[in-house]
Structure formats: structure tokens, C-alpha cells
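INFO batch 0412 | record 1 of 1 | parsing
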Amino acid sequence: MKLDRYQLKSGESSTSFEFISEGPKGRIFKIIQFSPTTYRNIFNLSFGDKHPETGEIDDLAVSDNKDTEKILATVAASVYIFTEKHPDSWIYATGSTETRTRLYRKGIAKYLEDAENDFEIFGQAGNVWEPFEIGKSYDAFAVIRKYGNLDV
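INFO prediction complete | emitting C-alpha cells
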């Protein structure tokens, strides 16, 4: 999947990424973090603005820099990079708000055909996990890289 995206900076483990959103509100520093959970090989994907004082992720910030598509493509690129280094890992993601979860669902749906070439994609509705379906509402998402196709 080749989409316009921002340049990512990452450490050797590819578990934390930074990039700069550029738009009408200026340059906004962003962070993407893959954090281990209490379950083996399951990582939580966190994303948001880099807080200017703490350097931590602010996943409730609304920067509205008119570059949502480019930001989502950048987050998707980080998933590809992370799963190259950690191919047996599941990635769990949900929005910090219902609106953001809906935005992520729309982004997955828009590029589902391409993404399914490289990932198995699941949605969580209540306590049930199922293969992602376009048009269905989900509370969270999980992906795992398919073997044999590592094209970024």
C-alpha cells in the first residue's frame, strides 16, 4: 500500500515512532507507540500528539491540521515496520474516543482490500472478535501480519 505519508523516526526496536504533521496549524509533533500488554505477543498501538512539556502521548488532543489521511497512512506505515521486526505479534488498537474509533474503522474499511493482502484484520463488537466487515461497528481492532508478504 503506497500512500502519501510522513517520514517516520524510530529506534532500533521499532516500538516507538515520531513524525511531524504539517498543515495550517503549523508543525505538530506526533508519537506512535507499540506497548506490550499482559498477553504474550499482543501489543497496544497508541497514537497522538507529543505533549510539549512531558514528551508523552496526548491521545485526546485535537490538532485538526487538515492531514488526517496522511496521518492515518503514516500510522499504517508504522504497523508495517513494527511487524517486520515483530512478525508474530498481534496489534490491538482502539480510539481514545468513540469518534476516533469510528475514524479508524473508516480508515480500515477504505483500504481493507489492500491491507488484507498483508494482514489478518479483526474487529471487536462487545466481547466477540470476528473478521473485520465493512459497515459494521466495532469497539476495537486487531491485526497480525500474514507470512510471506512483507512489502511495505
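INFO post-check: The longest helix spans residues 68-85.
INFO record closed
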